[in-house]
Amino acid sequence: MSALSKALALALGLSGGLALGPPVRAQEACTSYVVQEGDSLGTISLAAYGELDFQTLFNANAELLRNDPTGLVPGTEIRVPCADGRMTATEVIQPIAETVAAEVAVAETSSGAYRQKIRVLTGGDWFPFTDETLTGGGAMVRVATTALSRGSSDHDYTLGWIDDWESHLNVLLPNGTYDLSVAWYVPDCSALDQASELTRYTCLNFIFSDPLYDSVFGFFAQKDNAFAKTKTFEDLKGARICRPESYSLHDLEAVGLVEPAITLAVTDWAEDCFQGLVDGTYDIATIESQLSNITIRDMGFADQIVENSRLSSIQSAAVMAWKENPKAREYIGIVNAGLAEMRQSGEWNKIVSGSLKEAFDRSAE
Q1: CA 273 – CA 279 distance, rounded (Å)
Q2: Per-residue b/e over 254-293, b at no fewer than 16 CB within 10 Å?
């Protein structure tokens, strides 16, 4: 198990097959909370929101949980944001159009001197993270482009959209057409001898920024499936597992969920995985938790499919650059500097919460 997988397992109270601890006292959102013995992100989110909501809690405490596997221990103070992502009940989230207009104004402010352009590429149809129909291009595009603006006043950027994500990897970054691509899940490069061909290629040829966003991946099953209530990743050996092709497999590789230990199905869309659960074609679908519940609801499967409360993994999405690009490290450094400033000022959370609210409000229409 990778350090990142261990971190989340410990944070959720899942290591060693432990069940969720006793429920915490009724915990209000929009405040902080001191972790008690037996708490987990699962019990805290249930008390605060009335439902499992790993992602909202993780967003507010990513720096703690990403870097410190023992971060969620008794006595640790964590932030429990409002259900809409605000850190406090008094925080005001500007209408998204006004927020983006302010971001653009800051980006365009300069002394009039020439600013070198960084050529940024992304792709659509990854709602709500990179989607041309959303304001600013979606949550991850807004975070990345704002980070570029905050990280350097000497550079401007251009943004291109090409939905063929494979061409980003194999053609457009390697041949220098673009400098950066937004956004890619960062692979685990610590054990390349056991990694897939795609993971090896990506690790050997690209460099990544600090995380733009950390996605909690859930493990979903039909209610009466034998794998629905497994307690450890080892218990999933022998399962038929489905994940859409647009997602990396490195988190599964890190915990040994590779063939022949499992039977892996890679489908075109998340909907295909969930349909397969209901049809009995697959035992497990593992996809982003926050978005999966919306998809399951929209497909009418909310009463048939359950999310495992004991198993989750994390994938961190970042900006990617071709290693041989002579400007790669400079440009990644600019992104990292901007991200650090945004997290320190709280701007990162405002952009993410505003973008996700816009997307989820639209999906509910």
Answers
A1: 10
A2: bbebbeeebebbebeebebbbbbbeeeebbbbbbbbbbbb
Phi-psi region of 83 (alpha: psi -120 to 50; beta: other; left: phi over 0): alpha
Compute the average pLDDT of residues 56-81: 78
Main-chain dihedrals φ then ψ at residue 40, nearest 5 degrees: -145, 170
How far is CA 215 from each of CA 54, 66, 175, 263, 316, rounded to the nearest angstrom?
10, 11, 30, 24, 6
For the record, the structure tokens of 22 come out as 């006793």
Residues 6+ apart with CB under 8 A from 325: 173, 176, 179, 331
What residues are paired with 130 via a beta bridge?
A: 126
Residue 6 has pLDDT above 60, yes or no: no
Using alpha carbons, list the distances in angstroms from residue 233 to 1, 17, 311, 318, 330: 9, 9, 7, 26, 39
Residue 24 pLDDT greater than 50, yes or no? no
Give, as one character, the DSSP assignment of residue 126: B
Lowest mean pLDDT among 58-62, 102-106, 128-132, 200-204: 102-106
pLDDT digits (tens, 9 = 90+) for 131-161: 999 989 999 999 999 999 999 988 999 999 9
Q: Which residues of 117-134 are buried (b: 16+ CB within 10 A; e: fewer)?
A: ebbbbbbbebbbbbbeeb
Residue-level length of the chain? 365
Chain centre distance of CA 352: 11
Task: Give the C-alpha separation, 316 to 208, whole Å.
Answer: 10
What is the rounded CA–CA span in Å between residue 290 and residue 84? 13
Hey, what are 162's tokens?
A: 């090409």
- Nearest-angstrom CA–CA distance, 154 and 158: 14
**Which domains are present in the chain?**
3-80 (3.10.350), 113-213+317-364 (3.40.190.10), 215-316 (3.40.190.10)
